[in-house]
Amino acid sequence: MQHRIIEFAIGLLFGIGLIVSGMTNPAKVIGFMDLAGAWNPSLAFVMGGAILVGVGAFAIARRRTTNFLGGAMHLPTARDIDRRLIGGSLLFGAGWGLAGFCPAPALVSFAAGNGKAVLFVITMLIGMAIFEFLERRWQA
Length: 140
Description:
This protein is about 70% helix and about 0% strand. The protein has helices at about 1-20, 25-35, 40-60, 85-100, 105-110, 115-140. It is mainly alpha-helical. The longest helix has 25 residues, at about 115-140. Keywords: Membrane, Transmembrane, Transmembrane helix. It comes from Thauera phenolivorans.
């Protein structure tokens, strides 16, 4: 039970960080993507901060055999840049640029009752289901 409370607290902190940084506001995100118009560079600082935290966290994680909650450490090992990675990155970027949401901020906005986020989350779940269906079909 204690692990679940810690996991909830970390998720809550992450959600609050998304709200405070403006990542849940599609207009701010789209303003960041609008390089030719009224560009809003503020999210670059959010991303830069996230990258710094991530680099530090991975440096610590590489030296550990267990995570902070006592479970096994599972770090990604794949380093290949293939068609699937490039295609997924392009789809993610296009969706983020068109809708102003990526998955985590969309879930925070969904929980807050934002109508656009509700539509985004529903279509995201449908897209995930289609992917799983096709993935199973192609591997069979």
